[in-house]
Amino acid sequence: MPPKSNYSKEDILNSCINLIRKKGEKYLTARNIAKELGGSTQPIYSKYANIEALVSEVADYACQKAFDIILGFDDPHSHFLSIGLGYYEYAVNEPNLFKFIFMSGKGEMFFDEDKVILSKAVKKMKRDMVLKEMNFDDLVHLFKNMALYSHGICAALNSTQKLRYKEKYRKMIEQVGFEMILYKILEKKGIIKQKLDEWGWENENCSN
After folding, report:
1. From CA 44, how far away is CA 49, in angstroms rounded?
2. pLDDT the model gives residue 1
3. Half-sphere exposure of 190 (CA within 13 A, CB side)
4. Domain 1-48: which topology?
């Protein structure tokens, strides 16, 4: 049977993701993609002007798929904590894709100003009783802090090939997540500002 000559963009993008998953970004060439598809390079260049345009679209496509997986992760203790833990689980299970999306500069950071992602995250966080009454901006702030912390751990471990030590880092994310929630609650009650005033520290982000 002759190789298939007509592929959709989704076929091409999924083949690129599979190739990155198995071998890493450096194997993302037209020839390797065609081999992954089981055809020639012609369908690729019929849909993309060059490999750079394809890689850019692969990054966007991979980001959306990664966000769906990360926000779909559930932890029995907290929906908020599950976001950080989902980020970590993704880094553990998909090290090459994590590096391509979040460490190469081609994809979007998990905490960027993507209104769709932020809305999904806030909706998930509001399922936690302790966060239910917090407003959108406060929850986005918590979300971004958790994402930043989780990203720091995952990026450092990805570069040293040590993502297999899961339980230790899961506990770190859980602990910091609880501290973030507690800080935000105390801040909303004015206790943080009161203490900072007593100590003579200034923090314009603290409110009564």
Report:
1. 9
2. 44
3. 1
4. Arc Repressor Mutant, subunit A (1.10.10)
pLDDT (mean) for 143-147: 89
pTM: 0.80
Average pLDDT over residues 3-12: 79
Q: What is the percent of the chain with per-residue pLDDT over 90, rounded to a whole number?
A: 41
